[in-house]
Amino acid sequence: MQTSPSSQRSSTPLSGNAPDDGSRSLDDANSIVLRLDGKGRVISLNAFGQQFFGFPASEIVGRPIVGTIVPEKDHNGNNLAAMINDLLQRPEAHRHQINENRRKSGDAVWVVWSNRAFFDFRGKVTELLCVGNDITDRKTFEAVLESARVQLTATVQAQNAQLQESNRRLKKEMAERKAAEQALKESRDRYRLYSMASTEGILFHANGIAIEVNDALAKLCETPREQLIGMDILHHFVSPEDIESVKRKMAANDGYVYEITALTPSGQRFPAELRSWPGELSGRPCRVVSIRDIRQRKKTERQMIQSQKMEAIGTLASGIAHDFNNMLAGIQGNVEIIRHQLSDRSPHQKRLAFISKIVQRGARLSGQLLGYARGGQTEISLIDLNHLVRESLEMFSHAHRQIDIETRLSSDRPTINGDHTQIEQVLLNLVINAVHAMPTGGRIHIETSTTVLTASDDRDYEIVPGRYAMLSVRDTGHGMDADTRKKIFEPFFTTKPEGQGTGLGLASAYGIVKNHKGYIDVFSKPGAGSQFNVLLPSAQAALQPNPKPEPHAQESAETILLIDDEPDFLDVGRDMLILLGYQVVTATDMTEAEKRLQSADGTVKTVILDMAMPGPGAEMTVTRLRQQAPTVPLLLTSGYGRNGDTVRKLMPYCQGFIPKPFRLTELSNAIRTARNAAPIDRAAPP
Asked: What distance in Å separates the CA atoms of residue 199 and residue 214, rounded to the nearest whole number?
């Protein structure tokens, strides 16, 4: 068994395609895909793995891996049960490993495994994802080679003994034997040197002139292997600014690893890693040089740095959105209270309605921040594309007066089922991209329509035939060439100067459209502007006018405990609840809340809790509330939105959630829903 330590721990949930698609791709994989729980029991084994080991899912799911496909010990006596236990305790030490496994038939097989661990919030392993590939043939071949080597060694030794006894009489045979031994030694030496870097370029050179190269080096040099023999390859392959430094380091160091800029005959430059050590070929001293292409490693390093930067930005965005939503909640609450204190005919009602509209727009902006920070969870609703365009452009046009925006909205009112915030983000990203393409001003044309895609349509991608709503954004900017068009949806690709763009706008738009089962077509030529057509599956349901909800008035004055550490929101929240007919007691922390519950002596009928309370944290706060008032409905609220991990974890122990900011009607409905919800018979979260 061979293990390789992991460079990082993962606590990120699996992501990518929708669960159904992900299940099919795992089932169809030509590799073994095995999932284990934190106790080493099998959660799932894909179809390939079931066929490979001979265990159907019904016979292995739920059983310990040790004793099924992993024996207690392998044929060398290695304790595999202890290895599995160590894997569950220290997954970072077993990122990659090779070990013996057992089929149901009892046959031994060898598998190379890649393992990834998932942790809960306490750092305990909850699941292992193991992907394996069969290397039994390779291990068998290695055993055959070892047997042949032992047999060859024994044969040579026997021949040596016989030749020594006949030395005086068989001088000619001795010379032939020595020649054979020399040839065998050269073969072994060459095999050893080549196998040290089978995927790397290998060069044998004497005084800089190549005397042997492998196929990997020929591929790196973009030159046939035969043509490289006799060339001074380093002068052709190493950039001029590095060649002298390389020669000095090669002369002074054996096995020293250093980076160079490599060149190819086509003029391509790329980073490479070079190492050199002394060797021998055909009895002739030489230098051996290994050259590794590290472009992918460098790219991964850059992406990791960018990812860490974006993660930090996401954390900042989440905090900003939370504080922003708390401020909006205070504004919205006061607006609701004032509107209900004024008559319907008051001239101030119109201004208050306008303020409320601006608050909701601000809430959508903070929703975009939260969506960005948390990976874009979706809340599906019926969307009128015409209304979305009008609403989005209303705030956009004021900020870009040098741009003329024209719209042509279909009378068919194209509708889709989607996440309103994300689709609005797609439109705004496309419009912003168009603005950046016209730095001195220009015209943007936005159009909505419906169309039907058929299987016979000539497109660069596979489509699902059907009726689609189309959102088109066309500009009069500088346009793009074909090479740029191919890359515009790649993450971090940007044509802007360094520091002036992240390259995420169009990439996020593409991801959102793809997650909505849609497509984006791009048409552009240099100097002729660009047009983006977003195609999204049409909704089946028709749009209905939204009735104006009315607050629910309480028939009896029930008592509600409102817990929030923000004094301003606590005041406006209390007044909103009083306006709805409730009696209200308030608390700014958990200690005060426990005192309020104790003094209320059972009169509190509902608790409203802000999740972002200072102190023990949301989970401990809910636990303490459940211990003191296990039957009282608990309604959570937060400026972080409903898509956070903490909300999802706590919802099974609460009767509802209402995101800040909220209207009076939304608060009333949320309380009524929580009061009517079935009692929770679960224990509080650990």
From this structure: 10
